[in-house]
Amino acid sequence: MTQLKMADLRVGMVLPELTAGPVSRLDLALYCGASGDHNPIHVDIDFARRAGMDDVFAHGMLSMAWLGRLLTQWVPQSTIRRFQVRFAAITRVGEVIHCAGEVRELQQVDGHWLATLALVTRNQQGETKISGEAVLCLPISDREKEQ
Is residue 42 part of a domain? Predict the structure, then answer.
């Protein structure tokens, strides 16, 4: 994890990108076991085809987990106050997913910094899979209080 320094935090700052994939059938099977979400549409191609899909596809929450990892490689999990997403498109087997974030707003509230981040995942063609937002809460340093 790269330790975040508030002195370096600025609106417009871009988080170091996280890349996941290419998404494999093994990834989907392992996520089923880890999450307890055994919906066959994610691992059974015959079931997926009967449901009108060409193939199985990733759990939305797997993509959200990658965004969570993007955050926690940058800040401790304890700083995350809100993390929400909107699922925009299906993540398919074979896609490479790029997770990105940008600082959109900084506020001082009750002795802390609140940093609002815009988050997104996109495949290798640039198609948005998830968009979202996170709010981080970081203490204001003694030096910042004196200024």
Answer: no
